[in-house]
Amino acid sequence: MDSLEEKWKGLRLLEDENASIELDEDTTTELIYKEQRTVLGKIFSSRIISKEVLGSTMAKVWKISKAAKFTEVCPNTFAIIFENVADKMRVWEGRPWLFDNQVLVMKEFEGYKPLHSVSFDSECFWIRIHNLPISCMTKVKGEQIGGTVGKVERVDVQEDGSGWGNFLRVQVLLDLTKPVARGRTLTVRGNRFWAPFSYEKLPKICFSCGCMVHGVNGCSGGQGNNEEMEDKWKRESEKKENLETRAGAKEGKNGLGSDEDEGQTRKKEKGREESEGGKDLEEENGDREDEGMMRRGEERWDKQATEEESENMVDKALEETYGQMVEVSSEGKGGIGVEDHPKKKGEWKRRARAKGKQVVSDYPIPPNIMKILSWNCRGLGNPRTVQDLYNMVEKNKPSLVFVMETKSLKKSFDSLRRRLQCEGCFVVEAVGKGGGLVLLWNSDVRAEIVNYSQSHINVWIEEEGEKKWLLTCFYGQPDTNKRKESWSLLNSLKPAANIGWCIVGDFNEILTNDEKWGGRARPEGQMELFREVMNEGNLYDLGWKGDKFTWSNSHGDDTFTKERLDRAVATPEWMNIYRETWVEVMVTSTSDHKPLLLHVLKKKGRNWNSQRAFKYEAS
């Protein structure tokens, strides 16, 4: 459809209207200096963002000499005026910037160019190119590879032109209306291999088409609005849950807290989420440097050891390094509290599903998803904490539940296992008034405990039709002086190269100071030890969806601090087992740590969207 301007061109103008008025370029010196300190910015969001909200939020993120002034020139389009050119250049060089998980596209200010002719369809992003041979980590090779994605702005190399490291960083001007590139197939001296990409500060991406911004024709994926898709899935999932038969009366006191009225509790939970929604707006604006969901290497990894050899290697390393760890037999006996519960025939869920009850919907419900819940609850003695855990399990139906800092003994968990309707339960009892771990699982997976300590539970996970892999439920030392023990433990737990490995939990450490807000900066050497463990284990952060920061001290004054201490990381071998993974940061009011919900979409099963070969998750 032609725009209104195009239609106007076909109209006949009156003589006075057709007469051209020539404007003089008599710009004053002050105005020229103002233009030099100004950039144009646009937020691609379905909501209207006010200049006050955007200005106050970005002032905290940019941390420049004086807050910039935002002037709205169009809906969600602003002229951003800085106090001086130095502040402008600092913000300009730090692109891209995110607001509410949406990219803030910046363009140079051109005072004599009509605003409608300014294109906001591109922005600079840093791309990390992985799996490159050392000799290919150069400026020339970076420009060659990056040039296939977009216009190369610069390559992060040393003075001699080399950029040796775990990856090569290339800044590229990306077309936001095109699907984000996952990687490139390269050929070096006759060897063909896959080089996956990861992106720094990745914004929200469309589920359907893989684009950050939709063009004038809308989404090309054919599935409609991205947010509508997510909301529809959630609504249909809730409908399906309501059709399932519910069995068993509520239990009374279970030793870990008592039940509250379920309806009132859910109303309170909903109120807490709504009240924290506005507060979380600022928290979601942090830099999203972790590349987690974009890394999907397609290279086939050569097998170097069998699973049995890998298990023996792990046990041997643990025995040499940590004498206090205990080995658990495949039958699940021995150790600090193992509950082995056989499968029950005629389980209520299976009976309900056997009756053929299902929801018919125009939108497909994502199938074949395994979920892993991880939460540092800071004690299960509080009935409200137990109720929060029950609500999360009831709503999300995770296959495995890992809880840290239980501060409870083994005898207290049998009633909790029954209440959560879990088939298996493994407990590491608390020592004194602190610590304590528990791992619960249902019949969807086969869990085989390998070993454990006060800081971890190592378990083989086997699903029907999927390759066996190692899950490490991890709790890092809260004492900084003992943090090296945590890293030594992780190094000793690493399986053989061909075994998939995933770690979830509270690491009690951050990778960079961008994962911390408020308080004093974390010492670089302390974070470097964590980064070294990640590199040595070939572990990649799986990113997050929702709030970036998972812990806060809840102070109401200038000492307020929040950090990203909880996360999920995995090796490429593990990521190649599954079709898609993402980490959801949830909300709770009974602990200073926010729970994580790891979603794992299996490759096999019904194809719920045959129109796409893959999809992205970036919100």
From TrEMBL:
Residues 220-313, 330-353 are annotated as: Disordered. This is DUF4283 domain-containing protein. Residues 36-108 form the DUF4283 domain. Residues 174-219 form the Zinc knuckle CX2CX4HX4C domain. Gene3D superfamilies: Endonuclease/exonuclease/phosphatase. Residues 373-593 form the Endonuclease/exonuclease/phosphatase domain. Residues 343-353 have a biased composition (Basic residues). Coiled coil: none annotated. Residues 281-290 have a biased composition (Acidic residues). GO terms for molecular function: catalytic activity. Pfam families: DUF4283, Exo_endo_phos, zf-CCHC_4. The lineage of its organism: Eukaryota, Viridiplantae, Streptophyta, Embryophyta, Tracheophyta. It comes from Juglans regia. Residues 231-253, 263-280, 291-306 have a biased composition (Basic and acidic residues). It comes from the Eukaryota.
